[in-house]
Amino acid sequence: MIEDVAIAYGYENFVPEIPNVSTIGEEDKREIMKRKIAEMLAGLGLLEVSNYHLTSKNDQFTSMGTPEKQEKNFIQVENSKTDYNILRKDITHYLLKNLSENVDVEYPQKIFEIGKIFGVESKTDIISEKESLAVAITPGNFTEMKQVLEYIFNMLGIRITINEPSNPPAHFIDGRAINIKIGDTTIGTLGEIHPKILKNWKIKMPVSLMEINLEQVLNR
After folding, report:
1. Strands 161-163, 54-55: parallel, antiparallel or unpaired by DSSP?
2. What's the CA dihedral at 172, 97, 161, 185 to 10 degrees?
3. pLDDT 10s digits, 95-137
4. Cis peptide leading into residue 206 (ω within 30°)
5. How big is the chain by its Cα radius of gyration, in Å?
6. Cα–Cα distance measured from residue 206 to residue 151, given in angstroms and rounded to the nearest whole number
7. Do the Cβ atoms of 110 and 46 come closer than 8 Å?
8. Residue 203 near residue 195 (C-beta atoms within 8 A)
9. Cα–Cα distance between 193 and 173 in angstroms, integer?
10. Quick one: which of 132, 162, 158 has its CA closest to 145?
11. Cα separations in angstroms, 158 against 151, 154, 167, 184
12. Residue 153: in which H helix or E strand, if any?
């Protein structure tokens, strides 16, 4: 309708008028923080990777030592024509997949990804979308990854604490994993990948890995 009126009136008859509004564009603060973290990790010699938001149940659950039947809060794509039929709940499994696809590449291999993960809030059934950071090093150990963790948060000026989880994720070695906390909120986990999980991915080198929910960091 508006276009028809404009054509009838004649575009050449319109007088341009600059709106009485002044704005100054600036980069989103969350994006600035994400880029800062990425630059810090690149400075440590890590390579940034990017993976799909979609993944398979086998990669997300079975290969990570978690029975699919125990998982409820994931989002499935209806009528998918491929095995990539759910939205990823974490980035951890994708980094192991990256390493498994590069077993013939020179070691050490140090990679990271900053990206979105998805879930369903158990109390409200609302779909959640969060920014996450995952880092993997092979051959790597607990101490080396903890040094990366401490460097990041020291540079950001954010105080974190760690403690041993009472129920560590199935993909970590018992006694070689920690929770990462800001205040009373657990924001991530760090540890060494269990040999059974490495075998699932056909990875022959030890792997240390951490994943952090960045929402607590980006919203500061």
Report:
1. unpaired
2. -100
3. 999 999 998 999 999 999 999 999 988 778 788 999 999 999 9
4. no
5. 22
6. 22
7. yes
8. no
9. 6
10. 162
11. 11, 6, 26, 14
12. helix 142-156
Mean pLDDT of the region 65-75: 81
- The contacts of residue 10 (CB under 8 Å, 6+ apart) are none
* Nearest residue to 91 via CA among 140, 54, 125: 54
As a residue count, the chain comes to: 220
Q: Minimum mean pLDDT among 21-35, 91-105, 143-157: which range? A: 21-35
Rounded to 10 deg, the angle between the 142-156 and 29-43 helix axes is 140
User: Burial of 26 by CB count in 10 Å (0-12 exposed, 13-18 middle, 19+ buried)?
Assistant: exposed
Dist CA 45 CA 40 (whole Å):
9
In the chain, the amino acid numbered 180 is: I
The CATH number of the domain covering residues in 29-218: 3.30.930.10
**Best CA proximity match to 186, nearest among 206, 207, 212, 204:** 212
| Residue ranges per structural domain of the chain | 29-218
**Which residue type is seen at 61?**
F
Which residues make Cβ contacts (< 8 Å) with residue 58, sequence separation at least 6? 83
User: What whole-number distance in Å separates Cα of residue 22 and Cα of residue 184?
Assistant: 42
Element (H, E) at 155: helix 142-156
Closest to 96 (Cα-Cα) out of 172, 36, 166 = 172
What pTM value is reported for the model? 0.85
Q: Which amino acid is at 218?
A: L
Task: Give the number of other CB atoms < 10 A from CB of residue 166.
Answer: 6
Helix or strand holding residue 197 (H, E): helix 195-200
